[in-house]
Amino acid sequence: MALDPQLLDILACPDTHHAPLRYDEDGQTLTCTECGRVFPVRDGIPVLLLDEATGGPASESATAGDH
């Protein structure tokens, strides 16, 4: 299910920088153009919760401690 282009124009990352999001229709995800967090789109609804996101700064710092 494709997201409305007008909706995509106003959506932004919920983190403090509020950067634009890039939509991956095949993967049903939205990716922040600044921090790299990937937010799921479920049943055509963007889930813009930081706790639901994958990737981004939190995962980088977690994996950096594994070395």
TrEMBL record:
Q: Which family does it belong to?
A: Belongs to the UPF0434 family.
Q: What is the protein named?
A: UPF0434 protein Raf01_01890
| PANTHER family for this protein | PROTEIN PREY, MITOCHONDRIAL, ZGC:162634
InterPro entries linked: Trm112-like
Give the top-rank taxon of the lineage listed in the UniProt record for this protein: Bacteria
